[in-house]
Amino acid sequence: MTAALAETEDTEAKAGADVSLSVQAHQSLIGALREGQIRSGAFLSMPMLVDILGLPIAAVREAVKLAEAGGLVSVLPKRGVVVMDAGPEMTRECLELRAILDSEGARRLIETNAILPFARLREDHERLRDAALTDVTPEVQRRAILTDLSLHDALAAGVGLKLAQRIYDDNRNRIAIIQNQRPFLADRIVSAMEEHLAIISALEERDVEAAVAAIRQHLAHTLRWWGV
């Protein structure tokens, strides 16, 4: 192996490692935001982020750029980053955007006769609703978020466009930051699961009009619960 070839391979390996670290840093940053380790409106310097994520500053900088592109943080040059504000306007826009994608996904799923795991979706929602009627433990609250996402994820995937999926994924992360401001309570878990079950029923019946109406009703109730 020549010295030039060896140098090229070393450079490529280093570049690959840098990319891998950047991806890891981005995933860790998203995880910290979604889990509430980093809260809405928080200011963090780059050294603080490096400590939280436990990764090199170069990788963290790349992660911040990606998070900024997704609307999750704003960069303050030479100072640090500010996490998005989960205020009323942002909350309304994120939930409205989700409902738009939900509605289009439902329409396409129905019109293409797509197969969805309706039985599993229904069972998961009914079991969570029944559990919330008994006692809302931290585990039930955790399941509430996952069950809530299971239907919204399926509807967004139904749109069938890569760009739409990217928009949904970014919005999904923003909504996770918003949800960290207020935990799911028993009454909201129960009503949200009932609203989701109405959407599932409309999908099962291949009724576009009913599905869109159920999605809009779910949006209205969610906005009301958030007070926006």
UniProtKB/TrEMBL annotation:
<protein>
    <submittedName>
        <fullName>GntR family transcriptional regulator</fullName>
    </submittedName>
</protein>
<dbReference type="InterPro" id="IPR036390">
    <property type="entry name" value="WH_DNA-bd_sf"/>
</dbReference>
<dbReference type="InterPro" id="IPR008920">
    <property type="entry name" value="TF_FadR/GntR_C"/>
</dbReference>
<keyword id="KW-0804">Transcription</keyword>
<keyword id="KW-0238">DNA-binding</keyword>
<feature type="domain" description="GntR C-terminal">
    <location>
        <begin position="93"/>
        <end position="221"/>
    </location>
</feature>
<dbReference type="GO" id="GO:0003677">
    <property type="term" value="F:DNA binding"/>
</dbReference>
<dbReference type="InterPro" id="IPR011711">
    <property type="entry name" value="GntR_C"/>
</dbReference>
<keyword id="KW-0805">Transcription regulation</keyword>
<dbReference type="Pfam" id="PF07729">
    <property type="entry name" value="FCD"/>
</dbReference>
<dbReference type="InterPro" id="IPR036388">
    <property type="entry name" value="WH-like_DNA-bd_sf"/>
</dbReference>
